[in-house]
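QA checklist item 7 of 12: single-chain prediction sanity check.
[x] sequence parsed
[x] length recorded as 1460
[x] structure emitted
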Amino acid sequence: MSRLLRLNCQLYNIYAGRCCYYSRVNNISIYSKDALCERFHIMPVQCHQTCQISTNCNLFSNSLHVKQALMMQTKKTKVRKRKKGSTIARKIHRDLTAVLGARVSFLAKEQQTVNKSSQSSPALNKEAEETNINHPVSQIDNNFPFLIDNPNLSKKINYTSPASKVQLFPKTDDIIRIDAVNFGTLVNTKTTDTGPYFSSSNCGTIDSVNVASQNANWLTQLSAFKLQMNSCGRGKNRNNLERTIENEKLQENFTKDENYSETTEKRVFSDSVDKCKQIDVPSTETVILNEINNEPKHMSTNSYLLTEELNEEFLSLPFKEEMSLPGEVMLSSEEVMMSSEEGMTSSEEVVMSSEAVMMSSEEAMTSSPCNPEYLSEESSIILSPQFTHGTSSSLESDVVVPAEEINGITSVDKGKDSIKKKLVNKEKLISNFNVDKKSFVEACCSVGKHRIAHNCIKYYNCYPYKLYGIDVKITDINIYNILIHSWAKQMKTEPIEELMMFIRKDNLVPNYKTYAGYLECLGRPEVIDETACRKILDEMVIEKLDVKDLFNECTFKRDERQCILKAIQSADPYYIPNSPPEPKLYEGELLSPLNDKLPPDQVIESNPFTGVLSTEEIKKRAKLQLNWELKGSITVSSIYKKPKPTDHTLDMREKLCELREEWRKSLIKAFKNKLKYYQRKSERSRSYNIYPFLKMMTPYEYAELALQEIKHMLNYSETYSPRLSYLRKALGNKVWQHCLVKEKIRSEEIKKMEKLYELYAEEYNKDDFPHLNHRQCWHQILNDNSDGPSLVVEERVWPVHVKRTIGRLLYDLILQEVRMDSSIFNQKDERKLYPAFFSIYRTSNYKTFEEIKPHPDVIKLHKEAQLDDLDFNMSDMPMLVPPVPWLSLNHGGTLLSTTKLIRLPELAFNQMDRLQQLGTNQINAVLDSLNTLSACAWIINKTVLDLVIDLFNTKGNVDLDIPPPVTEFPALTKYPRDFKSLSPGQKAKLHRERNQIKQKRSEMFSLWCTELYRLSIANRFRDEIFWFPHNLDFRGRTYPTPPHFNHLGSDLARSLLIFAKGKPLGERGLDWLKIHLVNLTGFKKRCSNDERLAFANEMLDEIQDSADNPFTGDCWWQTSDEPWQTLACCIEITNAIRSPDITKYISHFPVHQDGSCNGLQHYAALGRDQSGAESVNLSPFSKPQDVYSDVAEMVERQRSKDAAEGNMTAIVLEGFVRRKVIKQTVMTTVYGVTKYGARLQIIRQLKDIPDMPQEYTSQAASYLTEKTFLCLQEMFTATKGIQEWLRTSARALAIESKQPVEWVTPLGLPIVQPYHKKSIQQQHGVQLLDDTNKHEKPNIQKQMNAFPPNFIHSLDSTHMMLTSLYCLRKGITYVSVHDCYWTHATDVPVMNKICREQFVNLHNQPILEDLSNYLIKTFLIDRSINCPDTMNRLKEVLMNVPERGNFDLSNVLDSTYFFS
């Protein structure tokens, strides 16, 4: 009887807690927790009368009472909250009806059974009379409304603020973790050394309840079984559960009443199931109508449904404490309970999250025991009770979670009158499964855990299973190949033969790499088995694999190549492998001329990159660069001037160093303990686990990474704290990159890279470069030195959930082990240790995010130490040597190739899949362009750098884009003493002012930090020659990989960079410098080049004054549009003028040629639009046409007309329709800016005009937006037609094919738009919020709006790449900033000629027709659509290519201001 009373009280308090929680979160006055219990005749403190139980059961079994009571109370709330209150009541009702109704019905039924027994049992009646249970409800704060008031709860409950993790209970042996969404799915656990913790980020998750040990197992199993019994409905699953009850013998786990028999228990559970069938269908369940008889079937959203066969198999096994199940992962609860990247949902979303899954009963019956239903955001630990039987694990112990990412596979899309089922994505299941297993096997083999990897593969072969009715098995032959090569190094043939058997069993086809691994094993012993080798070669012939191509089809590590060759030659002494393939030549009309070099008399310079450094110096610097990359980070001195350190400062620095050493020791010790823990779990588990990944580095290296993270966090501002999910992700990526480097060391790739790069340095520095490009040069070096390990290898990919799990583990160690000494500031104080970092929770847009902050004492110590150093990752820094040429998707850039060719989100794999299918030979031109841009050497303009640093350290200058220091930030407005007496309007105004100042301070600090990093890096490289490696975005646009300092930055950043290699100015070099100077000022936009040159000659005195006295003279340069570049150019012109011979003056200064609204130029060329072409300088004119000024004039004419008709807005705008106001809108129209975005752009410009009446800003912006769009449509008619066709095509493809839009650029680069519907995925308990996953449906709106601008971006990138390739062929230096091309002053005419020729060649191709044909072939033929009507509609849209105008493209060749 007592256990029934206790369980009954738990159910009531769950209900009361949920009601209280809803009211608190949504600010609705419903009832307090105690009041609810009282209202429903519940005794929260005492519940000892039998009659109360039956009364309460009857009351709660009728779900209408719950709804009516809540609705009655919410009617009393304010009108503005009535709707919300009603919604909340419905949510509470539908969430609780399933659990409370079913379970209370069970209690009532069991109570009747017990009452019948008690009539003949006086002892039972006596027990009921003596039962008096006290609930310490009053001791628990409302911050924890979901805590179940358990009768055996410890009377002493300690808790603190919910802003951090709270210790609720003292240490105990048995803890029950309860799923907040499913109300009672219990997991039996232990506490940690510091006790169980409750995280307020879970928005009410029941974290732990202290239960007497004799009842813990019973309560766990009873509650979990009840949820399963409610879900099973009918059929063999019900029988399985009944059989489970018998086999598990639950009566041994709790003290039975003397008259309580096993038969009674079984009957009660069985009757409970029958009772569940009669209750109303709750919304936490899903109804799927059977297509045959429309019979509703009930399923729970969180339960294990076991197949009969596997039930029998596993129930016959002796269950051990750490036993795991097939397809399940042994991960700690720390690895599972992780918030989403985008934050945890609010309470309303928590309730609804469990409704996001739907699975039919037929699918459920075929699922394996490893397949739980969806895990909601807050509930990520669910155990089937038969597998927790007799176990007692801790909060840090392993919990069973699904081995495959299954979230998003099935979901419910609810409308008002319909429920739709989303089909299971088979490709997604199998792909994620294989990626997980491959990464696990790679990690195991890297750390010598071959047997663990082998057992894992064997395990999944011996225990096949299904996910949602789909067979999930290993389909990637490379998983077997990795393990075969690993066993080969151990010279063990038996496991290899077993793996070959598995390969045949799975119907996989062995490839070159498979047989290479077997041959390696046979070739390692001193005595080779020739018969076995011959047998392998014969099998290769049967599989139609040419043995001579084996060495060209495989990649190798260490001495694998030699062992394989030895084995083959033992069977065939005359074997000679085929030579490596030569680099392929270009194909196509655009690129074929590049296959031949120009005659020497037509080349400016045979090698435009030679002579910057000697070959020996490059080799020496290559070793230094390699050491930097192996270290992973570099320390840079800050340029921010601080006062000379005092004795106190030096003392604080010393104490900080000592503290760091203590932190390092604590982290190493804690990590070793974690490693031992995971090792024990790994030894007892044959499935996927995290242990091999943690063994990839030493504990010392992990501790170092954690200390680097601590140092970074201490550099943040006091008001800023990053999201913990972001930090975990970043730290996990760092661990992954370090492990890649470690693997390169193990495979001896580093030694070979060092050797081959010396050969490349010799070729790179030859005056007569013997190759067509740097890719061919590097390719030839690799072919000539093919012995040893391969350098071009497939990248090791870690699943995202592994990275984040490791990142979370390290951050947990930081939070738990990194402690501060209370006596560090005062030695007299008693020494006490307390956490140096803590987590906080911020709520934004109904989502809660966990953030991490250092303790104020740690911040104080760091400030007083006044450290001068900044730490950067090596990937964020320029290189000391020329980058390695790009050869493949993951080989190029840095020496260790840790950068990616294409910048993509983590889960956006579509584009990489296309590239891997096509091979890199198709994009050789793209790779060569990247290599050309990367080969340019740079140096720092020291004169400008010194001026900027001085200004930066003397309060900055906002007009010159030098942010002021923190000391100059505006102070926050203080609240007046009579604040309470102010009117609501005055208080609101004061709050707005303070918020604006806070925002301003935050922006200023961000800008200040940006410039600090940029200037500090520039100062570090002030005496160096360096290079910027480049890569691509998904559209094909090129970017330097160092983010903080590069030539794509601001005006200030560009002014600091000049070419390392100088060239004489020649006859016209100085004139181009002067024209470039005037272009930078923006003073003569509508003037010809001759007029600009004349203006520069007139201003020579001002130019020289600016160079000699930048801040003390007339400061003419400061009035320029680009002041710092103008100053740098003034200095260069002054130096050239003052040189003995101007024509021989060696100039390092880059001169720019900028496209005239380049996006509109491409649109005009595509549509052969005569008027549009003239507006953007595709046609030759004596003076440049300025499209921005033209549009402004058209808008002004419209405004004048409206003003004459009395339009007030038009009248107010008189004199304010300026070029600058509408420039950004005109520029971004081609890139898909909406009217809403354009309006915001214009508002910002109008606010910067002092005389503009600010009260009319909003109206004026709307007016100008409409007029600007109308004028653009009138001016560029063909542009509008092409945009609409692209948008219509994208929309039709996204809707009909349900796939993202993709196309191929004229240079062969496949592009896939990574815009998909946002989904929350789960992989091994880690939640991943992403909108780029290829398995999700495309986001139609984004696909449609982004297609036109992205397509144009791909064209301007193609034009830039063609220009770079032909400039290399011509022998001139070339770099670009998208549509702005740079070269030496003397080479500007050559670059201009090439630029125009390649634009004409590009647009002479049938670009739109090729696009139409590609889309038809890809979406209608290759991926055939079954519906003929759909195919016809799509074909009609795609073939409706806009007609062209009559503009003659050859006019571009004579247009001076096309690029100027």
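[x] summary fact logged: The first strand starts at residue 166 and ends at 167.
[ ] second reviewer sign-off
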